Amino acid sequence: MNRMIKVLLLLPLGILVLVVAIGMLGGLEKGRKKRPRPSIGEPARDFTFPDLEGREVSLSDYLGKKVVFVNVWATWCTSCKEELPTVQKLYEKFRGDDFEVLAVSIDALGRKAVEPFMKEFGLTFPALLDTTGSIQLLYGTTGVPESFIIDKRGRVAYIEIGPGDWTDPKRQSIIRGLMEEPDME
Q1: Is the peptide bond before 145 cis (omega within 30 degrees of 0)?
Q2: Are residues 125 and 152 both part of a single domain?
Q3: Does residue 147 sit in the same domain as residue 163?
Q4: Could you give the count of Cα atoms lying within 13 Å of 171 in the half-sphere of its Cβ?
Q5: Is 38 found in the same domain as 7?
Q6: What is the pLDDT of residues 6-62, one digit of tens each?
Q7: pTM for the whole thing?
Q8: Model confidence over 61-116: pLDDT tens digits?
Q9: Do residue 91 and residue 173 come from a single domain?
Q10: Which residue, 3, 111, 115, 183, has fewest beta-carbon neighbours within 10 Å?
Q11: Are residues 48 and 11 in the same domain?
């Protein structure tokens, strides 16, 4: 009987400790909450991910100097397989001093999945590896592919939700116009 009373007294205390612990652990996830998608004109949100060679690449490395085409994609995405060859053509047409592509893969397998995919499709633009999907939380994406064109001032200038045809003259003229803006340095 004495043992039963102890259990009945300690049980609520144990439940209380468990609830507090879960609440504290839940607080750790606050930094991982999904942010709303940025708006046109809003400052781009900086990120850093490794490339296929393991070098850390940050969006901020290019701000003030280049127009940056940020593409969020995955190897398992059918629409991405259709879109990425047009991104390659865009990269070949504009790459240089004033333009860069940063294609952020959200594949959990990282390099193991991305490197063979890039070779198979003949893609040579920079691919960055985000194995945790943090870019999706940072940019509020709802799927793949999604693209963000960042101007030289570091502001979001264009957003494409879903696959785009980057050989389209209208889309290319947007990029060309942004490239013609003076560098911020």
Answers
A1: yes
A2: yes
A3: yes
A4: 20
A5: no
A6: 655 555 555 544 444 444 444 444 457 999 999 999 999 999 999 999 999 999 999
A7: 0.82
A8: 999 899 999 999 999 999 999 999 999 999 999 998 899 999 999 999 999 999 99
A9: yes
A10: 3
A11: no
Which residue range is the domain that position 144 belongs to? 34-179
CA distances to 29, 75, 115, 152 from 16, rounded to whole Å, are 21, 45, 49, 53
* CA–CA separation, 121 and 160 (whole Å): 22
Closest CA relative to residue 57, chosen from 135, 117, 123, 136? 135
Helices 78-94 and 111-121: crossing angle, nearest 10°? 70
Residue 155, both tokens: 């502001």
Whether residue 184 lies inside any domain: the answer is no
Q: What angle do CA 179, 100, 167 make, to 5 degrees?
A: 75
Number of domains in the chain: 2
